[in-house]
Amino acid sequence: MVEIRNFSSLTNGEKESIIRRNDLDLEKILPSVQEIVRDVKQRKDLAVIDYTSKFDRVALSKETLKVSGEEINSAYQKVSENLLKAIKKSISNIRKFHEKQLNEFSCKTQSGVNVSQIIRPLERVGIYVPGGRAAYPSTVLMTAVPAGLVGVEQVIVCTPPQEDGGINPAVLVACNEAGVTDIYRVGGAQAIAAMAYGTELIPKVEAVFGPGNIYVTAAKILVSNDVRIDLPAGPSELLVISDDTGNPKFIAADLLSQAEHDPQARVILVTTSENIAFQVERFINQFLEQLPRKDIISKSLENLWILVSDSLDEAVEFSNAYAPEHLEIHVESPNSLLPKIKNAGAIFIGPFSPVAVGDYSAGSNHVLPTGGFAKAYSGLSSHSFIKTISVVECSYSGLKGLAETVVTMAEFEGLPAHAESIKMRFENEK
């Protein structure tokens, strides 16, 4: 039975406990992950093959580590027309949204001084797609589509093999439709190390993207000094803010949808209405009995909080402190709250914007910061796959107009060569 609490009855310690999560203890597993990363750096493909045999119980060779074109082509015969149509529609919407994020610009900061920004894509990126027991073609789309959109030349995917050694056909089709260059049947920390440092078969990348379990997360942290990683992404989270106009059926369904991701998923409702709180609890218990992933959800719901707040301002204040991965707003005037939201991975406005549309096909990205990291991190975007380069062009008069300012700053900082590089250009005028 879920306990409904008045927000004002929570102690400061209880509030802090909710905000901290305390989901993952990376310290316990770091030594074993460090050993895997070190071994892959040294033994390369042989280590990858050995760990695939050990953890996934799949025997691979250097000839079967990479997924062949024939396997990708045959995957289309195993995917329904409806799923292929959904993949294509999702790609279209993801492209439309991520295209809007790209911008080059030019501006005159003063007469004769033009400063512009140009964009260059990363050349080679690696994407981790969780797999094995489950399949996540949506993760392929959320990572590979923006990478291809900005012009990344080589996009490689590593994903764990199924028990028979194959890769789920939907994942292969998604990879092909999204423009993935190469696919390797390897998962876990060994996949992250292989992409970060390169093996004989798996090329070294400039950045590693994609979610994974605690071992994948630990490996990404360990290799982050050598390659770019996307963001801290742990168990799924949803916080819902509701007043008395919220639809309790919708809210209960959305909380359950995120709870089914992982036993460690976190879902919270903060509402100004006791009636909504009790109805949501009732519908959660009712809907849960009908869901096939009941065991996972039940474990996740051990972390469920239903809180009754005195005001929407109090609810927003708590949400900002919690910084959820996903935030749904179910109030009479949801857009009036939007300016007050400081921290969230993604925000879903109103009763017909469930998180599930963001997970798949709305066009926004579902790789988002969790664990409170939304206070400092943004979700994955087109910017994750590019470098911005500043371009400065001064005319003679433009530099002359800046000369005194630059010389003054340089001499103050004790960098006379900087100052001289300006002065010498105007020596003939003396």
What is this structure's SSE topology?
Layout: E1 4-6, H1 12-20, H2 26-43, H3 45-56, H4 69-75, H5 81-99, E2 105-110, E3 113-121, E4 124-128, H6 137-150, E5 154-158, H7 169-178, E6 182-184, H8 188-197, E7 207-209, H9 214-223, E8 228-229, E9 237-242, H10 248-259, E10 266-271, H11 274-288, H12 294-300, E11 305-308, H13 312-322, E12 326-330, H14 334-337, E13 346-349, H15 355-360, E14 386-394, H16 396-412, H17 416-423
Helix pairs in contact: 2-3, 2-8, 2-9, 3-8, 4-7, 5-6, 5-7, 6-7, 8-9, 10-11, 16-17
Please describe the structure with a list of short key phrases separated by commas or semicolons.
6-stranded parallel β-sheet, 14 strands, alpha/beta, 3 domains, 16% strand, globular, Rossmann fold, 5-stranded parallel β-sheet, 430 residues
Find the CATH superfamily of the largest domain: Nitrogenase molybdenum iron protein domain
Structural class: alpha/beta
Taken as a percent bin, the fraction of beta residues is 15-25%
Name the helicity range: 40-55%
What form results from the Cα inertia axes? globular
Largest sheet: 6 strands, parallel
Judging by the overall fold, what is the CATH architecture of the largest domain? 3-Layer(aba) Sandwich
Radius of gyration: 25 Å
Count of distinct strands? 14
What is the class of the largest domain in the CATH system?
Alpha Beta
Between the first and last Cα atoms, what is the distance in angstroms? 86 Å
Q: What's the rounded overall pLDDT mean?
A: 94
